Amino acid sequence: MHSISVASEQLRSRLANEIPAAPGLFHVDVSFPLNDAFDPLAWLGAQSVWPQFYWQQRTGDEELAALGAVIRFASLSEAQDFLHRQEASDDTRLCGLNAFTPEAGALFLPRLLWLRTGGTATLRVNLFSTDSLQEDARAALAFLAQLAAMKPIESLPATLLHETHLPNRPAWLQLIREATDTIGRGAFEKVVLARATDLTFSEPLSAVALMAASRRINLNCYHFCMVFDRHTAFLGSSPERLWRRRGIHLRTEALAGTVASHPDDAQAGRLAQWLLNDDKNQRENMLVVEDICQRLQRHTRALEVLPAQVVRLRKVQHLRRCIWTQMNDANDAQCLTLLQPTAAVAGLPRQPAREWIQRVEPFDREWYAGSAGYLSLAQSEFCVALRSARVSESAVRLYAGAGIVSGSDPEQEWQEIENKAAGLRSLLLLD
């Protein structure tokens, strides 16, 4: 028997005996050692309850799986207000997604939360009621009774029926020329343009299976998967942190500037060195750094920008500069407003770049280039929702974007989005 099954039984016992009749927000935890081959992603995939949310920190130090919603929130500010209004415990976690347009979100207080930090896991059941927590405990007991045992993750389909790019290659090349012309006229310094690739398969695709495959080979990334219902999900493996907050201590970063990666270490090293010395990519990265610092400076103490480093991924390498500071107030809604979308996913100045994107991109970004993660009163962490895909039964939409500045070459930018999209595309196709 898996340790999570033992923990579930302990939760059932405590829910039947320890719950007050008062209204409010309450949780029951059972902690247990990681002494078996339990995979929280496979456990989520075995359930017929939604929403489901999986998230893993890019170092692998922290991982969570959330199942079922006690209460849902349409924005991060609404979620944060709930935590304050209910005087939640510092470690009450709400999790989910923020859209590219940050005023919209899909966050929730999970009915059941599996959380791993280091080598210890905790299973938590959350209760909330405006009348009686004992009544909600009965609903939680019914919820636990319907859980299924973990089973192996199903395989991905191999038959592709159709593939379409939005925009296609000629339209993309023309769009980049229009962008550089617009930059030349002084409308903005940088704009980030994206492409959607629609793949249609012969059979429905498992979002959990795609997430598992990506997690296995796309190392040094955040992994996230939001399954909205039986048919629809959004997932990705992103190298970029939007922010991490511990109390008032804040860490964010500028991840901008890209070159191809290579399986050979020596060749990858030469490409990385080129990236560090390339004027266009350094300029693109520094635009993001300057924008982040400008946005934060009135709301934080001294800002520390660390030296540039190269982040090597499976298909691409990026320039990254980390930015550390302390906030005046521990305010996640403020973090979201200030940081999303960054110049790395929208452009600079932000508003004219966003308006131009809305006018010229032939699709709605929805969750792409938004963010995925969790918040609590004590801490929060969100990654930028890049290298991502929307799954709708047998249809998959892959997203990839490129930062356009003065001097950007349309052919090189097409190759860049090809490289970025390959992180998930290669898992779906037998090329």
List keywords for this structure.
431 residues, 20-stranded antiparallel beta sheet, Anthranilate synthase, alpha+beta
Segments where pLDDT lies below 50 for 5+ residues? none
Second rung of CATH, namely the architecture of the largest domain: 4-Layer Sandwich
- Sheet of most strands: 20 strands, antiparallel
Strand content: 35-45%
SS content category: alpha+beta
Q: How would you classify the quaternary structure?
A: single chain
H/I helix tally:
11
Shape: globular
The CATH top-level class label of the largest domain: Alpha Beta
How far apart the termini lie comes to: 40 Å
CATH superfamily of the largest domain: Anthranilate synthase
Task: Give me the CATH fold name of the largest domain.
Answer: Anthranilate synthase
Helical residues, percent: 25-40%
Rg computed from alpha carbons, rounded to a whole number of angstroms = 22 Å
Number of domain modules: 2
The average pLDDT is 93
> Would you count the extended β strands for me?
20
Please give a structural write-up.
With 431 residues, the protein is an alpha+beta fold. The chain folds into 2 domains: 3-145, no CATH class; 160-428, Anthranilate synthase. The chain has helices spanning 3-17, 40-45, 76-85, 133-145, 169-184, 207-217, 265-277, 279-296, 332-339, 350-360, 410-428, and strands spanning 24-33, 52-56, 62-73, 94-98, 105-117, 120-129, 160-166, 190-201, 222-227, 232-238, 241-246, 249-260, 304-305, 309-312, 316-326, 347-348, 371-375, 379-384, 388-392, 395-405. It has a 20-stranded antiparallel β-sheet that branches. Helix 1 packs antiparallel against helix 4 and helix 5 packs across helix 11. It starts with a helix and ends with a helix. 44% of the residues are buried.
